[in-house]
Amino acid sequence: MSALATVAAAFPSLRHRNFRLFLFGQFLSQVGTWIQTVAHGWLVLELTGSPFLLGLVTMLGSLPILLFTLYGGVVADRVDKRRFILLLQCGMLVEALALGVLTQFGLISVPWVIVLAVFFGFLSAFEVPARQAFVMDLVGKQDLMNAIALNSSAFNVSRVIGPAIAGGIIAAAGIAACFYLNGLSFVAVIFSLASMQLGAMRPVSASIDVRAAMREGFTYVFGEAWPRTLVLLTATLSIFGFSFLTMLPVFARDVLGVGAAGYGALLAAVGIGATGAALTLAAYGSRARQGRVSIASAGILGVMLVTIALLPWLVPAMIVCALAGAAMAAAGIATNTLLQRLSPDHLRGRVMGFYSFVALGMAPFGALQAGWVAEHFGVRVAFALGGLFCGSAAAAVVWWFDPRKAMALERAEKTAELAGRVVTPEPPQGATGAEAQIALGSQKGPAIQD
């Protein structure tokens, strides 16, 4: 088999021209976003010198996601997603250029940083659910996990490249140059969206009963056992796990005694680990059970956060950050894929709105609690506490789904396969819809399954 055929077999989503354009634009845009992330965190520390204020600024910037993402999911189900995303990306371009101009001319201040962060968060509240639901329109259900994993790979490769570039740019040209470069990167995603060839979107009603639409999505997500579990687990990781990224500049400065370059190295390590996990799931994800991957990854992330809290050296911390990044990526990819696969087509935007709400909208609370704990007890305690919560949440899910029943059914299925017959277990009494499907298992396993 030729190398090209091997790649095509491993990454079938690349057969779709529109997805290739999407992936190219997203990659360049995300490189710019990570350049700005490093510069933004360092700018806030230069202006305030306070870990708590760093967490507070992050919280305020994410607050619009908490407030508007659910509505963003409703809108995503009823608009032309490509045009909508294109408009929002143009707004993000304006935000990056404004940060650059204010910083270059010495006009930047904490209030300006907060105002622009809130503006960016407002745009993200609508862009994220639309963009995540848009992937299904580009590749279909069959190649969905592969596409999500490749998109995550691009995100995490950019996490490696972006901070490395940012460290050099800050040292050579200053923080403002990072913001300008991020603005330029948005041109790539705008170009890729404009170049796509998509059929006309199905017509929708002009009026939106927001309350009824949100109630329908809420009823589905919290009325089914597996979507409800995934959403609650993601909320826990968002508050207590992912917040460690916000505190990395504090960890680099106060614990490791390294500067912006060391902070960039830690972020790059997270990206390397996440990229490895994403590429592995892209190539072999069809063989994995996404539910089990999601839960196991949450437990591993908890262990890694407790471990990094004990480390005083840069290189071991980078290794643990890489493992934490792998766990974060695996949990996100598996959860995103499984939620989209289980979701009815007409609810996908709202389901992604709920997912974005907990994955990103809960980040304000995570940033605030991590900043407060780091301010009063030290950043090591903030990391260890977050790790304990993540590990406990994963253990609670495993206990709730009673893995002994899953193991018993798997043994029965293997015995049946050897005997040349199929075991079809009865669903639990009263189970309906996706809950019955999960209990029976579309492939294998009654509980933590794909």
Task: Provide structural commentary.
With 450 residues, the protein is mainly alpha-helical. It folds into two domains: 16-195 and 210-400, Growth Hormone, Chain: A (Up-down Bundle), CATH 1.20.1250; 404-425 and 432-450, no CATH class. 80% of the residues lie in helices and 0% in strands. It is built from 18 helices and no strands. Helix 5 runs antiparallel to helix 14. The protein is globular.
Summarize the structure.
The chain is mostly helical and 450 residues long. It contains 18 helices and no strands.
Strand proportion, as a percent range, falls in: under 5%
- Which bin fits the share of residues in helices? over 70%
CATH topology of the largest domain: Growth Hormone, Chain: A
* Low-confidence blocks of residues: 404-410, 419-450
Q: How many whole angstroms does the radius of gyration measure?
A: 22 Å
Task: Report, as a whole number of angstroms, the end-to-end distance.
Answer: 30 Å
Number of helical segments with 4 or more residues: 18
How many strands? 0
SSE blueprint and pairings:
Blueprint: H1 3-10, H2 17-48, H3 51-76, H4 81-104, H5 110-139, H6 144-173, H7 175-194, H8 210-223, H9 225-241, H10 248-255, H11 260-284, H12 290-308, H13 314-342, H14 348-361, H15 363-377, H16 379-400, H17 403-419, H18 433-440
Helix pairs in contact: 2-3, 2-5, 2-6, 2-7, 3-5, 3-14, 3-15, 4-5, 4-7, 5-14, 6-7, 6-11, 6-13, 8-9, 9-12, 9-13, 9-14, 9-15, 9-16, 10-11, 11-13, 12-13, 12-16, 15-16
